[in-house]
Amino acid sequence: MNVGKMGKTDKSASDRGALVSRHGLHPSSLKRNQYTLSLMREGQRAGLLDQQDISRIQYEFLLLLQEQIIRYTQGESSSVATETAEQLLASAMYAVDACLWSMEDPEKAIASLKTTEIARLHAMGVEQVRQCLEETKRLYHEVKKHKLDVPVDAYNMTIEESLPIFLQKYNILFDGHNTMASIDYPLGIDDMSLQGVFYFRQYLERLHMEDRFCRQWEREDLLRLLEHFGRVCKFDYRLELFNIFELVLHHALFSVLSGGDPRRILISPVQYEQLERMFTHADAAAVGHLIDRGVDRLLDQLPAQDSDTTDYMKRCCRNLVRRIVNAAEHRNLQTVIIVDKEDDIRPVTISLKTGDSMSNVQLRRLLDDISRSESKEDKVRLIRSHFFSLHDYLDLLESDCLYGEDYEALYASFSDTELAILCKIMFYEELRGGAADLYTIIQGREGAERDWQNHLIGFMKRLDLRVSGRLMSV
Hints:
Organism: Brevibacillus aydinogluensis
Number of helices: 23
Pfam families: DUF6179 (PF19677)
Shape: globular
Protein name: EAL domain-containing protein
Region (Disordered): 1-23
Number of strands: 0
Radius of gyration: 26 Å
């Protein structure tokens, strides 16, 4: 067992103590996933565990694994495939993690590791996981009972199909760590550092909070906002991945900032013009101040929200600052602020409709013209005035008629939504797998097969754009 093996960082672990505890522990070094391993490593570093303690703990985990294998095979064998053994050990450690995490005080948890048999900690952890599963089931029934009446497939399928599958198949003893259900509907803020039933409990807690917030508005207004949102972004909102709560929250905020009623999330053309004047020449700091002030006013005018909802709302508005600044710079605020009157807004340039594609002859002629253009500005002007369909844009990018700074200039002319479409196509498999958000995927990529993809990755990294929720919603 490798004591130094670390899981994903979980910032909440640092909230469990000072930067350095009285015994020299660094709570920020403790990880929610693989909590036991990080406790062992940190305890040994701080001198609270010696090598003899570590060896005993490792040995007792091996004994526990042997017991789990016998349970798994129902006494028929004391050996299993390596992959199965790794899964059983991970599940056993997940239960021990649950037990130690519930103690809240890292020093108390380390003391338990030092003085309590691993088998005993495992038994207590299994009970913690079992209780969490029961809480999750009760919470699921609440979410299903009060779910929003909206025709958004990902939202409905997650509640009606994906979550029940998890609750039916979840195995506490042998697969407790596994987050096996396919959850398509994105939350406003998700915490992928959690695993197993603890992840699903948090997912349902946040979904319940989001739905409770959204139920404050009339269904007709919500559906109208969704329809306008789909038209502006040129997709069928019923089939796409986006967060309803974030869309509603932001437009309630826009309503308040433009002097409207927070109960009305449909932004009029007059309100849009006011918001456009407000944001067009404001820098990030000024926009941030406006958003903070707007959130405070929104909280004052809506019925009292509990502290968790208030904190969640504020966190969901943080990404809005960068989106507004970028949209204002590219004169595309209408892709962030959805106006109620469709005729008064200019939709995004890229169309997903195949009928908007040009003929092969037209495409070849334009590609030749672009290749002959001397400046990147001329190339971008030619592209933006003649290319309207996603199919044509992909043909353009795959044609290799752009070089170096040409890509930078073209991507800089795109709105957030247009960039989102390209990113979603490029990183479709990673996003579908749900292992990380778009920001994390982009930051982790060093290269790609095609030149246009390499330049897109570099462009997105330079933007420092933490708007994965928005990008995934397109």
